[in-house]
Task: structure prediction
Amino acid sequence: MVDYQQRLKAMNITQSMSRKGNCHDNAPIESFFNLLKRECLNRYQINTLSDLRKLVNGYVDWFNNVRISRNKNGLTPVEYREQTMIA
Result:
């Protein structure tokens, strides 16, 4: 959409899109949003945008700093990233 592209350009935002039908580019964020919905959003009644912001911010902090992951050898994402940066 031309209007959308112009607005991004005006805000100095670089648009990033993969080729049509290349679903693997979106897999990590789609997985995260699935977890966000299952582990957080579907468990609460959200009445205001402020409530939603608090829930999402709290979940992102928990996800990055507390929630361990088997595919990261039992580390949190922050711990895993720090470990790989040291090595």
Summary: The mean pLDDT is 89.
